[in-house]
Amino acid sequence: MEREVNQINVVPLVDVMLVLLVIVLTTATFISTGQVPVNLAKAKETSDRQDAPIVVTLTAEGSLFLNDRAVEEGGLSSLLRTYQKESPVVVRADRVTLLERFVGIVDEIRSLGFHQVSLEVVKL
């Protein structure tokens, strides 16, 4: 017995569209923030900087980013050598980051001659 198909099966189409929607929303969220997502520490006093600093981000997983670009282990020094030593450097570290890892990153930045190193926090 043959049966005529007079309807289109839309279930696979809906599945594909939902997957595409999730991909678009995820990408759009990351692009709109423009930064690697980290859960910053909180402080009562913050400063409002107007110049564009060099941003070093340290995630909770231990990944390192320089101006939102991934940095391989041990590659931070070679990338920072291309910047002027007078440039301000802001370190964005997740609040669950190990203190030893954070201090090591700051020491590495300061040993390259950068003296304007600060920590980005969220104001309470």
Keywords:
single chain, 124 residues, alpha/beta, five-stranded mixed sheet, 3 helices, 7 strands
Q: What share of residues is helical? A: 25-40%
Shape: elongated
What is the average of the pLDDT values?
Answer: 81
Radius of gyration: 22 Å
Question: How many beta strands in the DSSP annotation?
Answer: 7
Main structural class: alpha/beta
CATH class of the domain at 42-123: Alpha Beta
Please report which band the strand proportion falls in: under 5%, 5-15%, 15-25%, 25-35%, 35-45% or over 45%.
15-25%
CATH topology of the domain at 42-123: Nucleotidyltransferase, domain 5
H/E order of the elements?
A: HEEEEHEHEE
Poorly predicted regions? none
Largest sheet: 5 strands, mixed
What does this molecule look like?
- This protein is of the alpha/beta class and 124 residues long.
- The chain has a domain at 42-123: Nucleotidyltransferase, domain 5.
- 33% of the residues lie in helices and 19% in strands.
- The chain is built from three helices and seven strands; from the N terminus they run αββββαβαββ.
- It has helices at 11-33, 76-80, 99-111, and strands at residues 42-43, 54-58, 64-66, 69-71, 89-93, 117-119, 122-123.
- The strands form two sheets. It has a five-stranded mixed sheet, covered by helices on one side.
- The protein is elongated, with a radius of gyration of 22 Å.
- It starts with 10 loop residues before the first helix and ends with a strand.
